Inverse folding.
DNA sequence: ACATTGACCTGAGAGC
DNA sequence: TGCTCTCAGGTCAATG
């Protein structure tokens, strides 16, 4: 679930719910998710404060609690946020619970515990420490920047799109969609892509991610012309009606249309 | 230095 | 029904 569009939806959700609410208590269920800090440290840094602003870089969500102090949330494969009032409405698999003075709670939910929670002084530091590439929806990430990002990569295009060090935000699902719309084979070698293909890829990337955010990252609300709802070998390509194929690329499973995305 | 693979967790769904 | 097996959108460390 949580690729860039999902995390952006979480960010907006946070901004329309918990923003400016005074934090009363913080509880951590799974210490495994805390990176480089204890529950006690986290609590002492959050208690009495409030989330004053939100930000995002790639798949990382930032919640600013004071000058030079941000709570960073990463959602792994299964994480999400839930803001609720009634105590007995606490979601199953809640790993961290922030309770506010107004009686509401913010649950960080992650059934698979693959996420990360930590504190950082700035977005810049986060980018440096995680060695993240540019956020793909940042205004500065234009065609020129995209081409520069591709320049030092010689692997397969699907892996390159998913590399957070090369560019931040794209995961397995959306990489398939972007490649489908650009009509490029997932295993195509980056250094063999011509100028036209790179242009198509860049435009598809921006278009797909913006559209996904527009529909609240709900796959069911994406156009039926998208591959996303046809990710199954039993499904047919929405464009040519040919069979969708499943392949393995760098250990991840990918779906594509062999006819529309020839090598 | 780079690309790829396995490990990390645990639930859901498929197959028997 | 219940058991076992495989797979899952994430990153990270180890390997080639």
């Amino acid at each position: 679930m949580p690729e860039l569009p999902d995390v952006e939806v979480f960010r907006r959700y946070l901004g329309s719910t918990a923003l400016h609410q005074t934090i009363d208590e913080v509880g951590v269920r799974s210490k495994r998710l805390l990176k480089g800090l204890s529950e006690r440290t986290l609590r002492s840094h959050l208690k009495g404060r409030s989330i004053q602003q939100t930000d995002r870089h790639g798949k990382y969500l930032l919640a600013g609690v004071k000058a030079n102090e941000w709570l960073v949330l990463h959602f792994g494969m299964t994480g999400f946020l839930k803001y609720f009032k009634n105590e007995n409405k606490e979601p199953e698999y809640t790993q961290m619970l922030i309770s506010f003075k107004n009686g509401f709670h913010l649950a960080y939910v992650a059934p698979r515990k693959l996420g990360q929670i930590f504190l950082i002084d700035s977005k810049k530091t986060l980018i440096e420490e995680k060695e993240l590439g540019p956020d793909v929806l940042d205004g500065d990430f234009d065609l020129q920047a995209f081409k520069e990002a591709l320049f030092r990569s010689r692997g397969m295009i699907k892996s390159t799109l998913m590399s957070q060090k090369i560019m931040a935000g794209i995961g397995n699902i959306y990489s398939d969609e972007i490649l489908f719309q650009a009509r490029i084979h997932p295993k195509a070698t980056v250094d063999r892509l011509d100028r036209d293909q790179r242009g198509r890829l860049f435009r598809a990337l921006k278009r797909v991610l913006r559209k996904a955010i527009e529909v609240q990252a709900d796959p069911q609300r994406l156009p039926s012309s998208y591959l996303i709802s046809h990710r199954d070998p039993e499904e047919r390509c929405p464009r040519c009606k040919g069979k969708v194929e499943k392949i393995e690329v760098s250990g991840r499973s990918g779906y594509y249309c062999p006819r529309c995305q020839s090598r």
The helical segments of chain A are 4-15, 39-46, 123-129, 143-151, 157-162, 172-182, 195-214.
